[in-house]
Design goal:
The chain is built from four helices and no strands. By secondary structure, the chain is mainly α. It has one domain.
């Protein structure tokens, strides 16, 4: 604790980590909006299934958002705009592009362009 109190870099790193966790939890709350995000069942299996589905949805959201960020940053007008610090601040965990209410259109006649995905 004493080290944390005197080390500004450690404080920034801790704050950054807390922001990531809060953002993660905020997206979870946004996705699982029913009953204020509370688990609706006392049955362990149903709770586990609900959490696993939530993780799958959040992973899918992160993938789609990552692809959108990559497509946007590949545009020529963004070539030298972001600094390294700006790039470190990017996160795919945002939900402004999704709506939990209203109409959701499933376009089976269109596909995501996944041809330019990076390979490991």
């Amino acid at each position: 604790m004493a080290r944390w109190l005197r080390d500004r870099d450690l404080q920034r790193e801790t704050e950054s980590g807390l922001n990531v966790v809060e953002n993660y939890n905020g997206v979870n709350d946004y996705i699982k909006f029913g009953k204020r995000g509370e688990l609706a069942s006392n049955r362990r299996e149903e709770q586990e299934l609900g959490m696993l589905c939530l993780h799958i949805l959040q992973s899918a959201l992160g993938l789609i958002n990552t692809l959108m960020i990559q497509d946007t940053l590949a545009l020529p007008e963004w070539e030298n705009v972001l600094t390294d610090a700006d790039r470190r601040g990017l996160t795919p965990l945002f939900h402004t592009n999704m709506t939990p209410y209203g109409e959701i259109q499933l376009r089976t006649d269109r596909r995501l362009d996944l041809t330019d995905l990076p390979t490991a």
